[in-house]
Amino acid sequence: MPTAARPKIGDTRPAPAAAAPAAKSGRRRRGGRGRNKSASGATARDDVVQADLGVGDTTALEDLDEETLARRRGRTRKGRPAGRYMMCVHVREDGHTHIALLEGRVLIEHSVATAERDTANSIDGNIYLGRVQNVLPGMEAAFVDIGTPKNGVLYRGDVAYDPEEVEEKQPKIERLLKNGQSVVVQVTKNPIGAKGARLTQEVSLAGRFVVMVPSQPSIYGISKRLPDDERKRLRRVLEDLRPPDAGLIVRTAAEGATPDELERDVRRLREQWEQISALADRSKPARLLYQEPPLVTRLLREEFTKEYRGVLIDDRALYEEVRSYVEAITPELAERIEYYDEAEEGISVFERHHVQEQLLKALDRKVWLPSGGSIIIERTEALTVVDVNTGKNVGRSNLEETVFKNNLEAADEVARQLRLRDIGGIIVIDFIDMEIRSNREQLVKAFRDALARDKTRTQVFDVSELGVVEMTRKRVSEGLVESVSETCSTCNGRGYLIDEALLEELQ
What is the DSSP pairing of strand 127-136 with strand 141-145? Predict the structure, then answer.
């Protein structure tokens, strides 16, 4: 049997062979064999509230008019779905699940999920009944035991309280929390390094179309990414659906959603919160109350739209689970979920779409730009520094134009690298100095536009007097390098070895 040729940049994915085995036609019933296992294989606890994803509770396609159905199905090209994004899911035999998101052919995000991460480190979104271990007035924070190896941290600004029960307008944390007190909290940031999880008492539950915030009726908003006419339509529909005792945030995925779909989404989230509250009333502290679904399902719930031209999964069991989920919530997009048969294709899904080589490049400190320039990314404990160089880019006319074009290329690449490497915290970018003020303003604008595609919150400041751009990016989890590496046992992460022989002479 001849060996399949390795793919090259620009190759298109071949159509599946006619003899390829067809997927099972019957859907797996909820609660059936194996349904209580996550994508990583971890069995879910029966006494923990699981995310109700709305499977089996959706509007049938025949109930939608042709215009609405065509809009929700999205564009096609040569008979195949078209879109900006593609997701590739690779399940390894050791339990790791790698998820790659591509924009066109360019890798922009990468995530890793394992059984150990899902239960210990990847707890973002989970809800716990915690016990306050220690209140620190000087830090305006409290450590809360939530049953994980490290206590979570609850800051003063994340404590929920009734203003009528306290006299001060800005009460101190020691007035709101006491040692040994039971509190319901939600994880907003995974444990990173020696730091515990970041917690909040402002709990929120995410559905397919809306996010509900219990006990916060003043919170109400609609995604700004939606068109103005769609925002007005959703506002009219939700006026009658808003719970009197909870806030609502409408997601981008709600575009084109029918009133019945929105009503069912809100009702499902209310029922979830009632289950969580009932479980909290009969449980002891340091207890998991609500667990988010596996990472793949969570990403599809939050991001999967008609802008995705496909989701390729190379594991049959996970493919069937995800396909059933998408068929239930958005059946018009179910054809975009595809099973990738590695044995038939001859190469892995990551090789086919050049994910592996892009991942390896993302681990380097140096990244080349199209015109010959480069950027150097250095991470430290306090912040991340990015240096921009012209390198081999010598330009054609004058220095200012060469530097300006090089900086624009660097701005776009830096935005992509921050998202791909999942770098958070304080970031300083040393662009090449430019004399013309308008060029500096255009650079900052282009950089902000490039960062606008990043779902993680960022803040960018203007070029400083030293010619650098300062910014912050919310740190949600460990970065790409940390997720696939460990500290060197020889140099302890310093990157150099000390010659002890030279120090002996000083004693």
Answer: antiparallel
pLDDT in tens, 169-188: 788 999 999 999 999 999 99
Q: Are 281 and 289 in contact (CB under 8 A)?
A: no
| pLDDT tens by residue, 377-431 | 998 888 999 999 988 877 777 888 899 999 999 999 999 999 999 999 999 999 9
Closest to 473 in 3D by CA, of 415, 433, 430: 415
Strands 308-313 and 337-339: parallel
CA angle 324, 330, 331 (to 5 degrees): 65
First to last CA, the chain: 69
Answer for the pair 142, 198: CB distance below 8 angstroms, yes or no: no
78-93 CB burial, b ≥16 within 10 A, e <16: eeebebebbbbbbbee
For residues 407-438, one letter each, b for 16 or more C-beta atoms within 10 angstroms of the residue's C-beta and e for the rest, the string is bbbbbbbbbbbbbbbbbbeebbbbbbebeeee
Report how far residue 118's alpha carbon sits from residue 116's, in angstroms, rounded to the nearest whole number. Answer: 6
What pLDDT is attached to residue 47? 76
Mode of pairing for the β-strands spanning 337-339 and 366-368: unpaired
The tokens describing 6, both together, are 């390795």
Name the stretches of the chain with pLDDT < 50. Answer: 1-45, 117-118
Which tens digits make up the pLDDT trace of 23-37? 443 333 333 333 334
- Structural Rg of the chain based on CA atoms: 25
What pLDDT does 40 receive?
35
Q: Rounded to whole angstroms, how far apart are CA atoms 486 and 380?
A: 15
The first and second tokens of residue 103, run together, are: 């924009």
Q: Tell me the sheet residues that pair with 142.
A: 135, 154
